[in-house]
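Hey, resending since the last one bounced:
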Amino acid sequence: MFRTRVGPKPRTPSNQILGARVKARRRALGLTRERMAIDVGISFATTRTLEYGQGIHSTVLPALAHFLGDVSLDYLFGLSEDPGARATTPA
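The structure tokens again:
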């Protein structure tokens, strides 16, 4: 019989970067986790796991990026140091 993993999601490097960037950006804007939960449409507990580096459902990312001042997903995942940078696609 297979065992199902119970407990928190693993902290992957990309989720750790995402969590750190969200937390830093939120604090720089003077916003609380409570306000983030309300505006993004997630629970307060989810804000904690997000900032701790355990990730978030991908459907929440656009609202999260908008809440943080229309930052790019590239910035949130550490692919760019410029919060406004957008990915370019090869021709």
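The CA atoms of residues 3 and 9 lie 15 Å apart.

Sorry for the duplicate.
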